[in-house]
């Protein structure tokens, strides 16, 4: 190879590597966008397919002054009693009915048809404010709720967060009106179930049922996963421990035929007004929540915790500031067009160069033939 041709060859190979890598990236981006659009379309069609039951999730109940002093995550998991009453009033005025967990499970089996506009109100952890603040309001508006209680009164969840609230004592659990609040399990220690060994997990699940059943004198059939730390193994162990259903914090609603192990709920943040509750109950709003959940959890499942966790946080932050809308679809389509423009233009450029080289060779052959030269391979 002549020395003068080497730079040209190196440049050609580098360009080929670049266009190949870009094309691969464009293919991956296309698959991601197609999968995302498909997931969003499925969520919309699923939520709009018919009557469904939505599970609303609350935690701590505080005064308005206490809530105003909260910062960060505590504003998400606490709610002022005035705001909670606003939610209950809105539900009552629009004809919503509250179900028990027993009615929900019967609905999933197809053995019970709930009234139109039915919801399940759930309260996690078992703070004292459930008795002192939530129960009076539920009674006032003719509503019912399910309380998922962490069995260990000394669990860290009762010393974390602001304002601090202790767990209901066993006597206070007994004082709850069973026609208003149904008590179910929320783990024994509130530790991440997914990180426990099989033996520890079995003890955690069994002990929580036994302690609460003894404290209340009533059967404990359901549980809610603390912190949403679960996987298929946790669900399997819960079934083996004798539970009839497991509730999670995944977005979605309940429908006939759903698997009772892994039921979705939606946290009602303390800063949500009545319009925020309406958005949760709206099928289109729930579809968007399911889509966001899939897009934020997907990277962790596909890429592993080390790489996927930062990606998930970035996606979550993006959707928190820019909820999914038609603009995102248009933006994704524009990005795809840009991604594919480079390899298409490169292919076109290569074709033009090949045509020019072929034309140059043809001209050279023609010139030499006119001069009477013999061209190798063209005699």
SSE inventory with pairings:
Elements: H1 6-47, E1 54-58, E2 60-62, H2 64-68, H3 74-77, E3 78-80, H4 81-93, E4 97-98, H5 101-109, E5 118-125, H6 129-140, E6 145-149, H7 170-175, E7 181-185, H8 198-216, E8 222-224, H9 232-240, E9 245-247, E10 261-263, E11 266-267, H10 274-281, H11 283-321, H12 326-370
Parallel strand pairs: 1-5, 1-11, 2-3, 4-5, 5-6, 6-7, 8-9, 9-10
Helix pairs in contact: 1-11, 1-12, 4-6
Could you explain the architecture of this structure?
By secondary structure, this protein is an alpha/beta fold. The chain folds into two domains: 15-40 and 328-370; 48-281, Glycoside hydrolase/deacetylase (TIM Barrel, Alpha-Beta Barrel), CATH 3.20.20. The protein contains twelve helices and eleven strands. It has helices at residues 6-47, 64-68, 74-77, 81-93, 101-109, 129-140, 170-175, 198-216, 232-240, 274-281, 283-321, 326-370, and strands at residues 54-58, 60-62, 78-80, 97-98, 118-125, 145-149, 181-185, 222-224, 245-247, 261-263, 266-267. The strands form three sheets. Strands 1, 4, 5, 6, 7 and 11 form a six-stranded parallel β-sheet that branches. Helix 9 links the parallel strand 8 and strand 9. Helix 4 runs parallel beside helix 6 (129-140). The longest helix has 45 residues, at 326-370. It is elongated and about 115 Å long. The model has no long low-confidence stretch (mean pLDDT 82).
């Amino acid at each position: 190879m002549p020395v003068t041709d080497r730079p040209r060859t190196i440049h050609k190979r580098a360009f080929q590597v670049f266009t190949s890598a870009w094309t691969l990236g464009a293919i991956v981006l296309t698959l991601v966008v197609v999968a995302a659009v498909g997931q969003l379309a499925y969520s919309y069609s699923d939520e709009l397919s018919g009557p469904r039951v939505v599970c609303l999730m609350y935690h701590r109940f505080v005064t308005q002054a206490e809530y105003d002093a909260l910062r960060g995550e505590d504003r998400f998991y606490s709610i002022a009693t005035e705001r909670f009453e606003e939610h209950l009033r809105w539900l009552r005025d629009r004809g919503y009915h509250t179900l028990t967990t027993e009615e929900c499970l019967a609905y999933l089996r197809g053995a019970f048809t709930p009234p139109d506009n039915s919801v399940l109100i759930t309260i996690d952890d078992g703070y004292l404010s459930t008795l002192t603040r939530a129960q009076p309001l539920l009674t006032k508006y003719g509503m019912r709720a399910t309380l998922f209680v962490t069995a260990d009164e000394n669990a860290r969840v009762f010393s974390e967060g602001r304002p601090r609230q202790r767990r209901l004592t066993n006597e206070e659990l007994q004082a709850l009106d069973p026609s208003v609040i149904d008590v179910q399990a929320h783990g024994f220690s509130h530790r991440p179930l997914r990180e426990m060994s099989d033996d520890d997990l079995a003890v955690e699940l069994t002990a929580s049922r036994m302690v609460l059943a003894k404290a209340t004198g009533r059967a404990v059939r359901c549980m809610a996963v603390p912190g949403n730390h679960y996987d298929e193994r946790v669900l399997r162990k819960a079934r083996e421990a004798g539970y009839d259903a497991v509730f999670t914090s995944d977005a979605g609603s309940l429908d006939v035929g759903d698997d009772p192990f892994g039921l979705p709920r939606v946290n009602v943040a303390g800063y949500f007004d009545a319009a925020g509750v309406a958005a949760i109950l709206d099928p289109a709003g729930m579809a968007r929540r399911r889509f966001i959940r899939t897009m934020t959890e997907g990277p962790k499942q596909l890429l592993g915790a080390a790489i996927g966790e930062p990606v998930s946080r970035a996606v979550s932050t993006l959707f928190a500031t820019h909820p999914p809308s038609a603009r995102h679809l248009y933006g994704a389509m524009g990005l795809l067009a840009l991604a594919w423009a480079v390899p298409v233009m490169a292919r076109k450029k290569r074709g033009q160069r090949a045509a020019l080289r072929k034309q140059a060779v043809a001209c050279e052959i023609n010139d030499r033939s006119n001069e009477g030269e013999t061209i190798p391979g063209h005699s």
